[in-house]
Amino acid sequence: MLAAALLLALNTATKMKIDQVFAAYDKTNSPGCAIAVVREGAIAYERGYGMASLEHDIAITPSTVFDVASTSKQFTGAVIMQLAGEGKVRLDDDIRKYVPEIPDYGVKITIDNLLHHTSGLRDYTDLLGFYGYNSEDLTGEREALMLLSRQKKLNFAPGSEYSYSNSGYFLLSVIAKRATGKSLRDLLRERIFTPLAMTSSDVMDDHTRILHARATGYSLHGDRWGVEMSDWEQTGDGAVNTSADDLAKWMINGSRWIESLQTFERLSTGGTPRYGAGLVVGTRAGHKLLWHNGAWAGYRSAVVMLPDDQLSLAVLCNAGNANAAALALNISDAILGEPPPVSNERIPAHIDGVYLHRESGTTVRVERSSVGGAPLYPLGDGKFQAGSADRVVEFGDKAIDVTGDQGPRRHYVLMPPPKAVGNEFNGRYQNAEISADWTAFSRDKKLYLSGDRLGEVELTPLYENGFSLFGYVIEFTPDGFTLSSRGLWRFPFVRVK
Predict the structure, then answer these.
(1) Which of the chain's termini has less CB crowding within 10 Å, N or C?
(2) Are 256 and 170 in the same domain?
(3) Residues 378 and 260 in one domain
(4) CA dist list (Å): 199 to 131, 196, 245, 257
(5) What is the pLDDT of residues 338-387, one digit of tens each?
(6) Are 185 and 314 in a shared domain?
């Protein structure tokens, strides 16, 4: 029997605390969020805040449908684990058995590597973006496979490192389809959505499909809200559209699938990332924490489960500035009480600056008066928790070590501050894998990049020879530059003149 009735209501004071968490969105001139709170196996509180459609004055309710972006990955993982249990795929299969379009890198990439983000494959969303596709442009499986097939290198050897990559879960969708002859949409409807009576849930693999009660996505444009939707049709890494109502059914009745997602892969270099098969498994204040969040176009989402406390939370938003995971943890604090501070240890002096992880080319900025960053909470023994996540920072001599809530410990070194921009970086740079031909030039002591599909963009200085481009890190070398992000490690551009 499926349980989704309102059986264990929260008291009025607790509901008021939760409502206060969402006060900024509880308006008729703002997008907002829908929430579902599950306690002891029953819905304890559901509510909508703000508007599903600013154009048509439609309010958000627990039945409003949202694109949940990467929160979709738990459903993809559940289907793959089912297919593996039925012998339709093997977790140690070489992915080229199903997707021969992926180049032969001389090493085996397994389905297990895709599930746990240890494949080393570059992130197709980054590749498509720099190829010239915006989120509102129409792209699908063909375009993603085309760019992945052109990649000449991996970020790292499969199984040796962890790096969150949308390519892995997109390819799991392709593998599921080729192994069964059914789309991921059909597989999810047959295996999860219909059995759990998740009647509002669907997979958006066709951008023209009409979804009943779907909220419009919005983002801030200066001081006003603007529509931000996406026509990308890839599935697996995202594309599930669902409601708080339906996610409550998943959290209450989906335990056999959720249990199957709590499996891990030990790296060949040591360490075991805490990313399972579509869910992150960590701790908060000593209590087990299962979670995943998502962000795409004007949508933000999070599913957070605290099994030790018999508490599960879903937060779905159509406001691009919402931090759904933080909002979910704020709900948890309103119900369970805020975790007490572990230590009163102070942050070391003279730690401000940009720190570089040399292998990936990614950076972390540490500032004493940062606005919008993750605050550091002392844990004792020189360790600090970054924000509300299970991410620990340790300060050393001009270096920090960061142990992520998903990946292994990484070493970042303090970089020298940026120098005044001259003409030393001026030139033409190319990358054949994304057909990019970009020009760097200086003007008024500022550095710019331009290209046919890039436009003209000012680079923000980060450190000596290092700059930021849309949040990516560009580091110039004598022969060119590298472009780096979570899903692109040292992606090379060659200087041609």
Answers:
(1) N
(2) yes
(3) no
(4) 37, 8, 10, 18
(5) 776 666 677 777 788 999 999 999 999 998 765 667 788 888 888 888 87
(6) yes
